[in-house]
């Protein structure tokens, strides 16, 4: 049976709950991973999402900032979360789920944005980001990441030349600096290896974005986007991936949309 998984930085799930419910009705993913839910666990809209057909939920919230959640049509077990760099922020949640091809672990991440200055010596936010990536690399090298793993979320890095509107102009801008892109690509290709499920279905010379800044007066006309949101899987899971889609139209769905849009991976 075909199944789908989506990831979306919603930038406040309570503020944008109508958009989430509209997306679920229209696209009907089997699993939705949300980032920046910006609420405590008991403030998460559990009842509304259950009524929408997603009764299984793994939530790791935080007051006012960050926060991640997985909502699913299928049961979620072995729910856990991890802190990185000894900083207690809600940036990861994982769960075991079986959506037709045997059980696998889904990890939902909100990797630190990194602030404005791409210098870890003067910018602790950027230092945190690099430390987070280094810790991920060590963790992903462990044996249990060899198979049956899927990771997704807002990675806050656009790793490829055509993942940004202008490679040359953004080389010194946080999210596309060489130190970040090299670290993310080392994660992708190092250790046990991952498959980028979006780029599996779109050539690397095709421009792809999942984020457009609020600063643009007309985001669509300016089209200065970046692909910050990703879905990766181990090779055994990626072998079943049949398609991917970035829902660009979602950036203009309401007067207060998220600056990110949903990214979908399909499995046949």
Topology:
Blueprint (H helix, E strand, L loop, with lengths): L2 E7 L7 H11 L3 E5 L10 H6 L4 E5 L7 E5 L4 E4 L11 E6 L6 E7 L13 H17 L8 E6 L23 H12 L5 E2 L14 E2 L6 H4 L2 E2 L2 E5 L1 H4 L2 E6 L16 E5 L1
Parallel strand pairs: 1-2, 7-8
Antiparallel strand pairs: 1-14, 2-4, 3-4, 5-6, 6-7, 8-12, 9-12, 10-11, 13-14
Helix pairs in contact: 3-4
Tell me what the structure shows.
The protein contains 6 helices and 14 strands. It is globular. It is 20% helix and 25% strand. The chain has one domain: Deoxyribonuclease I, Chain A (4-Layer Sandwich), CATH 3.60.10. Helix 3 packs parallel to helix 4.
Task: Provide key terms for this protein.
alpha+beta; Deoxyribonuclease I, Chain A; six-stranded mixed β-sheet; 6 helices; about 25% strand; globular
Give a short synopsis of this structure:
The chain is of the alpha+beta class and 268 residues long. It contains 6 helices and 14 strands.
Number of helices: 6
Mean pLDDT: 96
Assembly level:
single chain
- Helix vs. strand class: alpha+beta
Estimated radius of gyration: 17 Å
Kindly state the percentage of residues in helix: 10-25%
């Amino acid at each position: 049976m075909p199944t789908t998984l989506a990831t979306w930085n919603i930038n406040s799930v309570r503020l944008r709950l109508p958009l989430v419910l509209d997306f679920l009705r229209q696209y009907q993913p089997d699993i939705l991973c949300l980032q920046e839910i910006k609420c405590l666990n008991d403030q998460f809209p559990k009842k509304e999402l259950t009524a929408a057909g997603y009764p299984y939920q793994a939530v790791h919230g935080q007051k006012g900032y960050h926060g991640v959640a997985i909502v699913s049509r299928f049961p979620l077990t072995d729910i856990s979360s991890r802190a990185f760099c000894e900083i207690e922020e809600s940036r990861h949640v994982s769960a075991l789920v079986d959506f037709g091809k045997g059980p696998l672990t889904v990890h939902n991440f909100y990797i630190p944005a990194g602030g404005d200055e791409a210098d870890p010596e003067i910018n602790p936010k950027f230092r945190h980001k690099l430390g987070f990536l280094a810790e991920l690399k060590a963790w992903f090298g462990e044996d249990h990441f060899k198979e049956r793993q899927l990771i997704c979320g807002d990675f806050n890095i656009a790793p490829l030349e055509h993942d940004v509107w202008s490679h040359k102009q953004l080389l010194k801008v946080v999210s596309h600096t060489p130190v970040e892109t090299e670290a993310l690509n080392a994660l992708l290709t190092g250790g046990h290896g991952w498959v980028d499920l979006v780029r599996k279905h779109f050539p690397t010379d095709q421009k792809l974005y999942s984020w457009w800044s609020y600063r643009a007066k007309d985001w669509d006309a300016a089209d200065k986007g970046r692909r910050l949101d990703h879905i990766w899987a181990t090779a055994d899971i990626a072998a079943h991936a049949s398609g991917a889609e970035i829902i660009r139209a979602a950036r203009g769905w309401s007067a207060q949309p998220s600056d990110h849009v949903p990214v979908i991976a399909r499995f046949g």
